[in-house]
Amino acid sequence: MDRPLLLHVPEIPLLNKEQFLKYKQDAVTIVDTRQKELFVKGHIPQSLNIPHKKSFATWAGWLLAYDRPFILIAAAHETEELTRKLMRIGLDNVIGYITNIDDLGIQVESTKVVDIAAVKSGINNPDIQLIDVRNTNEYQGGHIKGAISLMWGNLEKNLSAIDPQKTKIIYCQGGDRASIAASLLKKNEVENVKVYLGSMNEWLSQGQEVEF
């Protein structure tokens, strides 16, 4: 049953540096809602990228525990809408939010982005593991040759399928789920993770072959 429309949502607090660092030390989940292009350029280690887009609530419902608190990284003007979307699916453990990751005294990290040429060269490379994180029916409808199927929402249950010796290239349809998946893998301390943000949309638009 759908939850009733929330006309008023509680205002979540803006956390100061000391508050945020204390929660981070306590291993509170950090949800970075910025778009994938910003996230890959620089983010807080162990943070989870769930971009604020149309599917935000769906993605959050898959990935966040309903009984564990979390912090948002978001623009101030977006926090009410984000909180509303989260509360409507029962995720009401938002401690607070921050807007700027550069003033925390934390060394940010980036995610390596690869282009279509790198993906093409990785198809027959034994040192590369191509991972398609779309849904199974999308994968079966055509995927990059040699890619394995690991649906983004089930990644943490299937970490054993990730080859620790290989460089991982993650892709989806339009790049958002690939960024989410890459952040999940890095949160689970998987190394050598790269993301193909162009993903299948670019691959197909460039006339590249797929296998079924």
Automatic annotation (TrEMBL):
GO terms for molecular function: thiosulfate-cyanide sulfurtransferase activity. Residues 24-54, 124-212 form the Rhodanese domain. Pfam families: Rhodanese. InterPro entries: Rhodanese-like_dom, Rhodanese-like_dom_sf. This is Molybdopterin biosynthesis protein MoeB. It comes from Sphingobacterium spiritivorum (Flavobacterium spiritivorum).
